[in-house]
Amino acid sequence: MGEILSLERVSKSYGALKVTDGISFTLGDGEMLGILGPNGAGKTTLFNLISGDVRADEGRVMFRGKEIGALPPHHRCRLGIGRSYQIPHPFAGMTVFENLLVGATFGESMAEQDAEPICIEILDKTGLKKKANQLAGSLTLLDRKRLELARALATRPQLLLLDEIAGGLTEQEAKELVRLIQEIKAQGVSMIWIEHVVHALLAVADRLLVVNFGSKLAEGEPESVMNNPEVKRVYMGIEV
């Protein structure tokens, strides 16, 4: 398996607060890495460092063997890094379909006539096809989360970063989401998924990374990580 992403001792501070402290990990082609950790552990900052929303103070972010730490977000998107946000950020005054077209035409540099059938297919997969002509700003929170995933997919990512997209979903909706993510994974897309809905994450993840106070607490096979006494204590509040 080839390596698509590598973080090498990456750190980020805001004043005296070190939100990411020398974290290193790699991700293989087609692999799904699940990230767990308590609120404030530095999980979303990791995504921001990978997507380019913020730049690291120290360390290197490597994509396909090339350092991308100085590249802005839109360049990283065109290289093949797509992401969703924990708090959805749709173009509220545009329709659902137009939101996807923006992702495909600007993120993937695709001609509009080529992008349209791809966007329709993604809307169908994510359950948004019937709402294609609805303004994104009028969607419910759950549909905005679906739109976040759909917009990220429209950029045709090689690496997909998912930030808590299962939060607030019913059990049935979470099952449907897991099926969709399994489909995406089967197409060879590498993924990193931050999630508090642990059963959804465990249904898809090949490996788990647990962070706490900006540092790596545990990493490895899901079963061994979930049985780690420190993980049980810090993340699940279980004294072992």
Can you walk me through this structure?
The chain has 240 residues and is an alpha/beta fold. 37% of the residues lie in helices and 26% in strands. The protein has nine helices and ten strands. It has helices spanning 43-51, 73-79, 96-107, 112-125, 141-154, 171-186, 198-202, 222-226, 229-234; strands spanning 3-14, 17-28, 32-36, 58-63, 66-67, 81-83, 159-163, 190-194, 207-212, 215-220. Strands 6-7-8-3-9-10 form a six-stranded mixed beta sheet, sandwiched between helices. Strand 9 (207-212) and strand 10 form a beta hairpin. Helix 3 (96-107) packs across helix 4, helix 3 packs parallel to helix 5 and helix 4 packs across helix 5.
Produce the secondary structure layout.
Layout: E1 3-14, E2 17-28, E3 32-36, H1 43-51, E4 58-63, E5 66-67, H2 73-79, E6 81-83, H3 96-107, H4 112-125, H5 141-154, E7 159-163, H6 171-186, E8 190-194, H7 198-202, E9 207-212, E10 215-220, H8 222-226, H9 229-234
Parallel strand pairs: 3-8, 3-9, 6-7, 7-8
Antiparallel strand pairs: 1-2, 1-4, 4-5, 9-10
Summarize the structure.
This protein has helices at residues 43-51, 73-79, 96-107, 112-125, 141-154, 171-186, 198-202, 222-226, 229-234; strands at residues 3-14, 17-28, 32-36, 58-63, 66-67, 81-83, 159-163, 190-194, 207-212, 215-220. By secondary structure, the chain is α/β, with parallel strands linked by helices. β7, α6 (171-186) and β8 (190-194) form a beta-alpha-beta unit.
